[in-house]
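Support request, please re-run this one:
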Amino acid sequence: MELYQLTAHEAHQLLKKRKISCKELTSSIIERIENIDNKINAYITKLFDQALKQSETIDNKIKNKEQLHPLAGIPIAIKDNICIEGTPVTCGSKILTGFKAPYNATVIKKLKDAQAIFIGKTNMDEFAMGSSNETSFYGPVKNPWKTDAIPGGSSGGSTAAIATDEAVLALGSDTGGSIRQPASLCGVVGFKPTYGLVSRYGLIAFASSLDQIGPITKDVTDTAILLNTIIGYDPKDTTSQKYTTPDYTESLKKEIRGMKIGIPKEYFIEGLQKEVSFWIKKAISKIEELGAHCIEVSLPHTEYAVATYYLICTAEASSNLARYDGVEYGYRHSDNTLINMYQKTRKEGFGTEVKRRIILGTFVLSAGYYDAYFLKAQKVRTLIKEDFEKAFRSCDVILTPTSPTTAFKLGEKLNNPLSMYLSDIFTISSNLAGIPGISLPCNYAHNLPIGIQFLAPYFGEEILIQIAYALEQSNFFEKRKPVI
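Re-run finished. Output below.
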């Protein structure tokens, strides 16, 4: 096995025992990126020099027999909407050209305290607005399994980096499935925590009531370790929750006997790819073999989730993106009048999808339409939240497909936004409700990964880790790696 193929927990044990050095591990990842990223385009900014310098510091600590955090010396990729002080942060947009983050996001501070190594900033849909990672100003990310296919979005760079071993760990953000959907399409593990469990301070906002930072990893054990590191109350984030956080590695158990699994009838619908349906049903049978009980549940307002989500997220986006005007930072069009400078900066700085969402969001917030659209969407959001609360009275977790299909081809849906938006149909409801979810590999169809999703009640991360780990360890399917 090459060093770049190691998981974080495997690498940690080898570092502790001094069987490998941190510099060797970091150099292996750097070499991997240099060899293949021209085919994948997972990275926007590479931080190799500082990564190698930091690896030497970790090696000295190992030499001096100092105690290591489980993430010390582990190379991690960071989605390029999360601020690292002094480092470019682009959000995949032209409008932030030349801008460097003036401070560290809270999750970055926590990772720095753990002495993780930042290997680079990953490509993403512009301002996290997309389901395919084709809207980035820096070009599309390619799916490692078939490079003519999309990796999913908006955290496609982070998920592709993990799938190709261009990082050991990664962080993404999830507004409507932007961690879980690309994790499904790239064959890795993606976790969206409960809203408020992980601080959003230093995450550049798309839709503030929906955004959540979360782990993208090679296996469920690494998810638990990374989640342990980034969670916790943060007074800098007014939506941060005061919650006594457990050690999620204690939930890495194979025993799920007696657990009740809800299967929502609204998620097995027309349009679900037959191979996805087949393997999800196989997974349900496997879970029953492991001793869990699967029951049918109903989430009756699911059919309104896509419309509700795209009204709320665009309204919040139109507000959050008003600050990008070329005055203080980023791209600026030179013009002799202020109003022309504003207009031309935003016209040239934003891509088509971002403009579409700003226009839609501004419309639904405008006088005469607020009550008819935005307010009504908020009421439906409450109904969707109540659907989950009712379902969880009869089950411990809910099982669904992560994505209705495997990865589609680059360009296939780019000019059909409605079809593109439906790619998130199984993930957006949990963002509207604020509940946690995990996607992990389930099998493959035509050499493209299929993902299975588990959802839990608020702060139900422990039970998600437990059932995901049990299925992962059951050898339900043969694990593969993409060939680049």
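Residues 443 and 450 are 5 Å apart (CA to CA). Residues 3-258+457-473 form a domain with the Amidase signature (AS) enzymes fold (CATH 3.90.1300.10).
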